[in-house]
Write a structure and sequence with these properties.
By secondary structure, this protein is mainly β. The protein contains two helices and 59 strands. The N and C termini lie far apart (113 Å).
Length: 664
């Protein structure tokens, strides 16, 4: 069984001794800290037994329990002076005091708090810090406040000589009223707390608040002198007191360089009563009955007290959450069955106060959500399924026996995992689906005609990536060339499409009339345009003439004629317009005007409207060109309805305003 760690022994910087006093050769601390000398402080972290060591100015490190250096601890400590005092909190934070004035290049006068990884904890702010020589000791109360002792005269500009108390955020605790306290030359070297909160203080001093006290005294919780603690003439000789400790029965052991206690010869060590002979001593440890610190969910184990004494009428109490938190039980042992990793606390409690706490962390192996992977994968991809947690054995339904397996098809996949200490077995399943392939097709013109930009549209998807760098649904461009878009569907699956844009010019087209564009009813005129177009369509009054797609067209009725052509590049152009007129005059056998032919009046000017039927607009036309001059409209019952007709344009009228009784 290994014993205590000591600074230099047998020429080494740091050594660990076995219980028989010989050097533990399995401890490698000397090689980790090198050949330095003059250690400032050594503290063992309770949670993981790692060791914090100051072994010279600017050298503050953390070692593993075997003495090797913990490289995860920040290498930026860079203290400009020795660290003389340290305490590790339950949450892993570290409060430090000493000679230093800067830490990691920042001003921290003689006190600082670090995060568990070694970085400065900026939530601890002592202002301008401690003025004076150094800090020798820091004691942490149960309420998180710090009692600080050393050789100093002020903190953050406020006078406090050799001893003070800080709040957990580093500010001065105004409830600690030590009065004028010690003299400027006083040095506090050791502080211990009684279970009732009273403070035993030792060092090199001769009075407190004007009252004679030599090297040793006791303060009440508020920092005032406890006059019930009588030590007579106190400690005398040489350099005074250096260390204090409680025995198991709460007597005080004082050590240092002295020769006398209250007139009695005592060379360098003395044990005295603290008026708490029947009070509590804390447990030295909590022992797990299974000898392991991990269990499986649903399992249980028994925790036992190791060491400690409960004072008269006292008892040992077990807690979770924090010491004094949720009470779990009373006695020397407790059976627990945590479902998540839990820290358990134990202390002795009696009327004289509570002892410090022992604690133990019980890790619970997580057996839920073991498989880490996506339940959907894209066509052509592979899917990697990974087991979370550190397991000893893996068996996949794919046959893989490692922490991961690669799949290329949809289906249901299962893994069985197990551990040895503790022996936990769990099964997890995941259903993997093949996401449907995304379908993408770029729409839009493929020819850039003249200076008209082309708009390409990739369709509706959650995300886009064009070859130009755009991430929008559409791309507008005047530059010919190839364009590629990658789209991503709701499952993150990708699909691509591409298009090539060519350039072209608008065609120039002109139509001519091969004959007079004005002729008698029954005649016609031939309209013509140039050849060589990929496509051609004739229009009358801006309306497409069906099946009129040749180079020429025979116009027989009045109207405005034009054509639209498309060249081989795919660009379209519109021609000029030719107006064809067919006057309404009687004609003879040779289409000449014939006044001898008499046409009945009711047929001379035939008129028709289209579309027919309609309830919206109606266009009036005749068999020949005719100009309507204020036409009149009548219902079948003979009633004129013109006031309800709205003229839109020439020969175009809106009849939508007709009353219902007239709309037939």
């Amino acid at each position: 069984m290994k014993g205590t760690i000591y600074p230099p022994y047998s020429g080494q910087t740091i050594s660990r001794l076995l219980t028989d006093g010989t050097i533990d050769t399995s401890f490698h601390g000397a090689s980790a800290v090198g050949g330095h000398s003059g250690l400032g402080t050594i503290v063992i972290q309770p949670a993981d037994q790692k060791i914090l060591v100051d072994y010279g100015i600017g050298n503050f490190v953390r070692l593993f329990p075997d003495g090797s250096k913990d490289s995860s601890f920040s290498d930026l400590q860079s203290f400009d002076g020795k660290v003389l005092a340290a305490h590790v909190h339950d949450d892993g934070k570290i409060i430090l005091g000493g000679f230093f004035t800067t830490v990691q290049g920042q001003n921290y006068n003689r006190i600082v708090r670090l995060m568990p990884g070694g970085q400065i904890d900026t939530t601890f702010n002592p202002g301008s810090g401690i003025s004076g020589n150094f800090v020798n000791c820091i004691i942490v109360q149960e309420d998180g406040k710090y009692i600080v002792g050393g050789k100093f005269t002020a903190i953050n500009g406020q006078t406090c000589k050799a001893i003070t108390r800080l709040n957990s955020d580093g500010s001065l605790d105004s409830t600690f009223v030590a009065g004028s306290g010690f003299s400027n030359s006083a040095e506090i070297r050791a502080i211990i707390l009684q279970p009732d909160g009273k403070i035993i203080v030792g060092g090199q001093f001769y009075n407190f608040n004007g009252i004679q006290r030599s090297m040793l005294l006791r303060l009440d919780k508020d920092g005032t002198l406890d006059n019930s603690f009588q030590i007579g003439t106190g400690i005398h000789g040489n350099n005074g007191l250096y260390t204090l400790a409680f025995t198991h029965d709460w007597k005080i052991v004082a050590g240092g360089l002295f020769s006398n206690y209250n007139g009695t010869i005592r060379n360098n060590i003395v044990k005295i009563h603290a008026n708490n002979n029947s009070c509590n001593t804390p447990p030295s440890a909590i022992v797990a009955g299974s000898l392991v610190n991990s269990i499986c969910p649903g399992d249980s184990l028994t925790l036992y007290r190791s060491g400690g004494v409960a004072g008269s009428g006292g008892q040992f109490k077990w807690y979770s959450g924090n010491c004094g938190g949720l009470l779990l039980g009373v006695g020397d042992s407790i059976k627990v069955a945590p479902n998540v990793t839990t820290t358990y606390f134990l202390r002795a409690e009696s009327s004289c106060g509570n002892s410090p706490c022992a604690f133990k962390i019980i890790n619970v192996k997580s057996i839920s959500g073991i498989i880490n992977g996506t339940s959907n994968y894209c066509p052509g991809d592979t899917n990697l399924l990974i087991c979370t947690g550190n397991w000893d054995n893996y068996i996949w339904s794919t046959g893989s026996t490692t922490a991961l397996t690669q799949i290329t098809s949809p289906g249901t996949y299962t893994v069985t995992v197990s551990s040895q200490l503790p022996t936990c077995i769990s099964i997890d399943t995941i259903v993997v689906n093949l996401s449907p392939a995304a379908l993408v097709q770029i729409s839009g013109d493929t020819v850039i005609c003249g200076s008209t930009a082309v708009v390409l549209n990739a369709g509706n998807f959650p995300a886009y990536q064009w070859s130009t760098g755009l991430t929008t649904q559409t791309l507008t461009t005047l530059i010919p060339g190839s364009y590629i878009v990658t789209v991503y569907d709701q499952f993150g699956c990708a699909a691509k499409d591409s298009v090539y844009l060519s350039s072209g010019n608008y065609p120039s087209v002109n139509i001519t009339s091969l004959g007079p564009p004005s002729f008698c009813q029954g005649d016609s005129v031939l309209l013509s345009t140039s050849s060589g177009f990929a496509n051609l369509n004739w229009y009358r009054n801006s309306n497409l003439i069906l099946s009129a797609n040749t180079q020429t067209y025979v116009a027989k009725t009045a109207g405005s004629y034009s054509c639209v052509v498309t060249n081989s590049s795919g660009c379209s152009g519109q021609s000029n317009t030719i107006k064809v007129r067919v006057p309404c005059i009687p004609i003879g056998p040779s289409h000449e005007k014939n006044s001898e032919i008499q046409i009945p009046a009711e047929f001379e000017h035939s008129v028709w409207g289209y579309p027919n039927p309609t309830s919206g607009n109606i266009l009036l036309e005749t068999s020949c060109e005719e100009s309507f001059n204020a036409p009149r409209f009548f219902h079948l019952d003979g009633k004129e309805i013109f006031p309800e007709i709205l003229k839109i344009s020439n020969n175009n009228y809106a009849i939508s305003n007709l009353r219902k009784e007239h709309s037939s």
